[in-house]
Amino acid sequence: MLPIVLVSLLVSSVLAGPVVNVAQYNVNEIAPARDNGRAVSSYITDRSFELVDGGDTNIYILTIQQILNDLANAPDANSQAIAVGQTIALLGELAYGIPGDACEAAALVNAVATRSGVRGALNNYLARLAANIDLIAQVGVNPNAYRYSTGPKANCAGGGRTYQFEAAWDIAISNSNAYNVGYINEEYCAAKRLYGALNSRSNNVGAAVTAAVSGPVAKAVEYALVPLSDFLKTVVSGANAGSAAAAAKNALIQAGGRVQL
């Protein structure tokens, strides 16, 4: 009967079709320390993404999440600011059950690429990040808070999915430092696939990553790094993050005015 069993298994597998499961593992499988004595670490970035469902998170988004952990562990403030800013930006795109658009992100990217209208675009994008902070605080309490909700929508061409991608990343890579140039290059490759993807969630994440890596946003986040990281620490700890969210939003908006353009 052994040959029959083997044939049955073969026929069954042919009829069922191939099934592929993708799982990503860090080379360093040691769990990040909860507190390494610094304001930012991979503990808060890694744990933050556990707040949202990963059912439709593709390999390129997962790759960016791993890069954010590396940036968070880097010794310089610029890398840590990029990690925190992009974490808040990505969570804002992943928490909604139905994707919205990326108008603020696209407008900022275009402004940075053309060096025109950056102040207004920066203020609008920081307001979007501030709204994400409220969203993250609510998801920390109720993971399904936005499961049936649609992300923010605005009136812009193509929903903000067409912008000066290459020019923006050329600037980001040229402004990178010795600690993060490799990570920024890796992000560029993953973000490019998201930018060219056919689904809107991937497009939105690509725009969010591109906007949050820009110099003006990274500098604003750096100025507000401690309140922002304290907020993420509070959320991932499971505590009520209401007051931490208010402090983080206030610090971020004020920091935007300090950025030299």
Automatic annotation (TrEMBL):
| UniProt keyword annotations, A-Z | Secreted, Signal, Silk protein
Q: What is its main location?
A: secreted
Per its UniProt record, what Pfam families does this chain match? Answer: L-fibroin
- What is the name of this protein? Fibroin light chain
Cellular component GO terms, alphabetically?
extracellular region
What gene name is listed for this protein? Fib-L
Provide the leader sequence positions.
1-16
- Family annotation (InterPro entries): L-fibroin
The compartments listed are: Secreted
Q: Describe the protein's quaternary organization and the partners it interacts with.
A: Silk fibroin elementary unit consists in a disulfide-linked heavy and light chain and a p25 glycoprotein in molar ratios of 6:6:1. This results in a complex of approximately 2.3 MDa.
- Superkingdom is Eukaryota
Keyword check for Secreted, yes or no: yes
Keyword hit for Signal? yes
Q: What does this protein do?
A: It is likely that the major role of L-chain is to prevent the retention of H-chain in ER by forming the disulfide linkage.
Q: Which organism is it from?
A: Cnaphalocrocis medinalis (Rice leaffolder moth)
